[in-house]
Amino acid sequence: MKIVRRKSRTVSAGTLGIGGDNPIRVQSMTNTSTADAAGTLDQIRRLAALGAELVRVSVPDDASADALPEIVSGSPVPLAADIHFRADLALRALDSGVAKLRLNPGNMTRRADVLEIAHRAGSLGVPIRVGINSGSIPADLRKSMGGVTPESMWAAARRHLDILEEAGFPDIVLSMKASDPLLTVDAVTLAAAGCDYPLHIGVTEAGPPLTASARSAVAASLLLAAGIGDTIRVSISGPPEQEVPVAWEILSSLGLRRGRPRIVSCPTCARTRIDVAGLAGEVAGLLSGMQGDFTVAVMGCEVNGPGEAGEADLAVIGTPAGVVLFSGGVRLTGEVPPEELGKILREGIESLATRRGGSS
Ligand code: SF4
Q1: What is the pLDDT of residue 186?
Q2: What are the structural domains, with CATH classification, of the chain?
Q3: What pLDDT, on the 0 to 100 scale, is given for residue 54?
Q4: What does the pLDDT read at residue 29?
Q5: What is the rounded distance in angstroms from the CA atom of residue 295 to the CA atom of residue 202?
Q6: Ligand 1 pocket, residue 301 CB under 6 Å
Q7: Which residues of the chain are modeled with pLDDT < 70?
Q8: Taking each helix axis from N to C terminus, what angle separates 209-225 and 181-194, rounded to the nearest 10 degrees?
Q9: Half-sphere exposure (CA, 13 Å, Cβ side) for 69?
Q10: 330 to each of 297, 308, 316, 333, 337, how far by Cα in Å?
Q11: Does the Cβ of 280 fall within 6 Å of ligand 1?
Q12: Judging by DSSP bridges, how do beta strands 54-58 and 199-201 pair with one another?
């Protein structure tokens, strides 16, 4: 399947290009108190190490705004400030050097405020994401357009876009999110047809990890396969460190991003000769945050093992002779004693990461 990406304009969040021919960017968001600069920076560094290219931090109050300069200067990736209700906090965030703003038109309703923010952001070259959530569609639009629908979400977006466009502000990113994946898809599809702004995609309030991963994959895949989406966040009720690998997995499964290792492992059955789940978990832990274009397989027996091993750069397979390692279909070892398997795997993966793109 060939995915042809929608043509969007390019904006820059600091050094990070978004939209146009740039890769689809992976984002996440901290859940620490932003007023705790050290704790927030720790989480930002963990997210960046896992592959987040842009991290959003909430700025709900003055104490958070006070901490922003320290967070911005210590962050290894560009930061977006998430602002609701208070225009003064958006202005303070801009003064602190954030690379991007996210405004919610549902609660940043005063036209004069939006114009002032746009003017300041424009003079600093900072893009603004207009983030529409299904939960904050203006009452008049809900009333006149049949409730929360793709059309009322797009109309809410258009109102805010109109203000920014009248102000001559070009560096806009747009998101349209709902907790219902199909409503999200329909709303974003409308937006994609109606503007050339880069689109940030994701499902909001998506639930705990399993539910959120499935819902996000459904919505993102439908959109991305249609060529729609320039940045992505997988929202999870839980540690945000869980979000980034899911986003990468979605993009890599669609062939839209490379450079992260892939794991292949069988579901196991009565033929299983090794602890596939345990080993696959160990391999996933070793691969977490690593860069490199390679595949590691863990297969329970010799039935499908050699076939998968032929495609994998490193494969662990249970055979009648015990656990053996393959690389590109070539048997690397005889039976590996269980106590040595972890060490041999680790060395094999580190060697692959060095040869195929390094590790982070
Ligand atoms: S690879 Fe072997 S153990 Fe794993 S599911 Fe297939 S037949 Fe079963």
Answers
A1: 98
A2: 11-253 (3.20.20.20), 262-355 (3.30.413.10)
A3: 98
A4: 97
A5: 27
A6: yes
A7: 305-308, 357-360
A8: 30
A9: 6
A10: 13, 12, 12, 9, 19
A11: no
A12: unpaired
Scan for tokens 């923010």, then name that residue. 117
| Token digits of residue 159 | 């109102």
Read off the tokens for 80: 């977006």
CB of 80 closer than 8 Å to CB of 51:
no
CA distance 214 to 179: 12
pLDDT value, residue 319: 84
Structure-block tokens of residue 102: 């996210």
Q: In 10 A of CB 74, how many CB atoms?
A: 14
Alpha helices in the chain (DSSP H): 37-50, 62-74, 87-95, 111-124, 139-144, 150-166, 181-194, 209-225, 243-253, 276-287, 305-311, 338-355
User: Which of 272, 279, 323 is the pocket-test mutation for ligand 1 (most atoms within 8 Å of CB)?
Assistant: 272
How confident is the model at residue 359, as a pLDDT?
A: 42
C-alpha 276 to ligand 1 mean position (Å) = 10
Tokens at residue 351, please?
Answer: 């060697």
Q: Is 300 in the pocket of ligand 1 (CB under 6 A)?
A: yes
Q: For the segment 8-30, what is each residue's pLDDT rounded down to a tens digit? A: 999 999 999 999 999 999 999 99
What region, left, alpha or beta, does residue 227 occupy, with left being phi > 0 and alpha being psi -120 to 50 degrees? left
Q: 103 is written with which tokens?
A: 């405004």
Q: How far apart are CA 76 and CA 91, in angstroms?
A: 22
Task: State residue 308's pLDDT score.
Answer: 65
